[in-house]
């Protein structure tokens, strides 16, 4: 088994699960577990191990929700669905990516050294993923009745169908790839539409979350709004 090394608590009921240089978020708030994003391919064992660390069984993972349809967020999705029977959720703009397995829409690198290097190393739009079915299309402004309620916020730019999820008021914002937080806040690896991406970065800061986590890098546990505002002002 490709065992998970860490399961990091973000806040009560929410855990960051590293899935091969990309994060998933596991929500344990009720009878059913919710996983947001599925990481790179071949990480299903890490997900099952994370579920076990919470004292739960694979079939307790009932919902698999996606911030967007890029390979590092859907790579293990088909395998996770087979292992758990989880129901799947994604913004309509990215559903064709999941259900075809690629190719993926072109991007240009984000600004800065880290995004430009990562773009060259990891972005492989023509490398296919195993396709899988999306059970429910989600849209901006709706609240999914999962884990006590996940409010959907459309945050396009990095990816046309990218969304974030606001959980428990403003207690936690799960923000996908609007930013990375590896060596501080930076642009994501790339943008499908940079102008839209800048608007989404501004929108993210305006949400004024208490805590925010991203698809890549550490969660910001304290001072999230201040750090987001500073990052936006630098762009």
From TrEMBL:
It comes from the Bacteria. SMART domains: Lactamase_B. GO terms for molecular function: hydrolase activity. Keywords: Hydrolase. CDD domains: yflN-like_MBL-fold. Residues 21-216 form the Metallo-beta-lactamase domain. This is MBL fold metallo-hydrolase. The lineage of its organism: Bacteria, Pseudomonadati, Pseudomonadota, Alphaproteobacteria, Hyphomicrobiales.
């Amino acid at each position: 088994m490709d065992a998970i090394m860490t399961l990091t608590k973000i806040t009560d009921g929410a855990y960051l699960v590293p899935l091969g240089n990309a994060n998933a978020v596991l929500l344990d708030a009720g009878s059913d577990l919710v996983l947001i994003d599925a990481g790179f391919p071949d990480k299903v064992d890490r997900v099952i191990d994370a579920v076990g660390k919470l004292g739960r069984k694979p079939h307790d993972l009932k919902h698999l929700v996606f911030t967007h349809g890029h390979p590092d967020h859907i790579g293990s999705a088909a395998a996770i669905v087979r292992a758990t029977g989880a129901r799947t959720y994604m913004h309509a703009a990215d559903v064709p990516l999941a259900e075809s397995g690629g190719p993926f829409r072109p991007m240009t690198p984000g600004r800065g050294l880290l995004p430009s290097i990562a773009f060259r190393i990891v972005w492989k739009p023509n490398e296919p993923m195993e396709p899988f079915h999306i059970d429910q299309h989600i849209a901006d402004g709706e609240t999914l009745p999962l884990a006590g309620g996940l409010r959907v916020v459309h945050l396009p730019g990095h990816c046309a169908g990218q969304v974030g999820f606001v959980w428990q008021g403003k207690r936690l914002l799960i923000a996908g790839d609007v930013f990375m937080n590896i060596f501080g806040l930076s642009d994501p690896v790339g943008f499908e539409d940079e102008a839209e991406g800048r608007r989404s970065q501004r929108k993210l800061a305006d949400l004024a979350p208490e805590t925010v986590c991203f698809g890549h890098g550490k969660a910001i546990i304290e001072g999230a709004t201040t750090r987001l505002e500073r990052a936006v002002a630098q762009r």
